[in-house]
Amino acid sequence: MELWKVSQKVSELSDLIPYYFFSLVSSSLSLSTVLVGFSLDTWGVIGIIVISFYVVIPYLLFAVPVQVLFNKHPKKFSVIYFCLYIFFSLPAVFIYSSVLNFDFSMDILTTKNYYAISLLAALFFWFWDSVFLQKKSSAS
Questions:
Q1: What's the whole-model pTM score?
Q2: Which own/partner contact pairs does 81-88 have at CB distance under 8 Å and 24+ positions apart?
Q3: Which of 23, 41, 104, 113 could form a disulfide with 132 if both were Cys (CB 3.0 to 4.6 A apart)?
Q4: How confident is the model at residue 26 (pLDDT cuts 50, 70, 90)?
C-alpha cells in the first residue's frame, strides 16, 4: 500500500479517533468498576484506576480492531455486533488471564468468572461503542 493511501485512511478516521478513545476509556472504567465492586477486597478508586490500565490492553488488542471493522457499517445497539463482541471476548479473556496468571491450562474454561468477565467485557464495549461511535458514524 502506498504511503498516500495510508495517510488518506488515517485522515478519514481522524475525526472518529476521539470517539474510539471515549469508548475505550468508558469500557475500561465500567469493567474495572464492576470487577472491583464484586471483589471481596476494598480497593476503591485506586483499584478501579489500576485495573483499568490492565483492562485497556485486551480491549486495544482485541476489541478496537473489531470495532473499526463494525463502524464501516454502523448499527446502533445491534444484537449481531454484541454476539460477535462476545465471540472475540472469550479468547481475549482466556489469553489475557493465562498470561497474567502464567497458567496456560484449560482449567480457566470451567470457572464461572471466566464467562462472567467475558460477557461483561463484551457488554460494556458494545454499549459504549453504540453510544459513542455508531451514532457518530451513521451521522457522518
A1: 0.80
A2: 81/126, 81/129, 81/130, 82/122, 82/123, 82/126, 85/122, 85/123, 85/125, 85/126, 86/118, 86/119, 86/122, 88/62, 88/63, 88/122
A3: 23
A4: very high
Could you tell me if 31 and 55 are in contact, meaning their C-beta atoms sit under 8 angstroms apart?
yes
Angle (CA) 12-15-20 rounded to 5° is 105
Region of 73 please: left (phi>0), alpha (psi -120 to 50) or beta.
beta
Q: What is the pLDDT of residue 137?
A: 46
Contact 128, 27 (CB under 8 A): yes
Helix (H, G, I), strand (E, B) or coil at 140: coil
Cα–Cα distance, 89 to 63 (Å, whole number): 8
pLDDT digits (tens, 9 = 90+) for 94-127: 888 888 776 666 666 667 888 999 999 999 999 9
CA distance 19 to 25: 10
DSSP 8-state assignment for residue 2: -
